[in-house]
Amino acid sequence: MINKERMINNFLDYVQIDSETKNEKEMCDYITKKMRDLGFEVTTDNAGEKIDSNGYNVCIKYPGDSSKDPILLSAHLDTVTPGNGIKPIVDGDIIKTDGTTILGGDDKAGVAIIVECLEAIKENNVSSRPIEAVFSIYEEGGLKGAKEFDTSTLKAKEGIVIDSGGPIGSIVTLAPAQDVINVDVYGKAAHAGMEPEAGVSAIQIAAKALENMKLYRIDEETTANFGIISGGSATNIITDHVHLVGETRSLNIDKITNQTESMKQAFENAAKELGGSVKFDAVRVYNPIKADENSKIIKDLKVAFEETGFTPQCVPTGGGSDTNVYAEKGINCVNISCGMSAVHTTDEFIKISDIDGCARALYAF
Prior knowledge:
The chain is α+β, with helices and mostly antiparallel strands.
């Protein structure tokens, strides 16, 4: 059975290992050594060299019962910033920080749960399906580690990613596509005090474009946002270049395509009207997921949750995960909740009972 104390101690150790995106090596090394010391087959790759990271993807295999279908389990090793020098605080059932950093439950709770399930199955000599566990790097900011992972080395055709929030029992069956947008707006520099009429403000073009486009919650399936704007050099110079970074997300391919195109059109119209120019670049980072709620993996997960005292529910999400990548690569994958809360903020916390509950359900599965 699951050893809750061991798992929580492992989790507390993991979150204190610095592993912000692109700097995951220490965490990769730690997990690799730990799992090899426990007697598991462990392989690594050179994904980090391809994506500007010092880390690597880690794959662990447990043979299990060859008459059963193998399963992929996955979580990611990197965290968002500020994720260095994390000092976890245990307050009753809650694990949190002092508020100066994130906690890193996203996704080291998923890592701890998978490691504990593997260790418990092995030490108890439990008959299980073959397990292939992948711990990826550079998930935050583009799912790049999973994209570089060679899934042809896997036998599993079904998978479970532990990288979501909400009540234990939540099974993510709908997840959006995402476009990442980079825009360069060009105007004409001039002295703002002596000859402003000779200039064309890239800031004004960008502002007009943003004013004339739909942003944030577009509809029940679609969102859009610009989160980064930079440009300008002095108050007395009409700014001739502004750079913006944004995104669109939707559960519907046609809607995300149309939303991104409408944002491009808004920039082009504003540039034409005010005498500037624009370079608009949109990249589809990942496609949406729409899992079949009647598939075997979801039916089996529901049974496992019910057996461990949880109410299973299929839910949508507004965020992407490695699930999107594995699904594109032909593995029928779902994402389940481990109870992470307020992720990507310094208010992040997780309940010990939720980590334990997710682990017990996964072990039962």
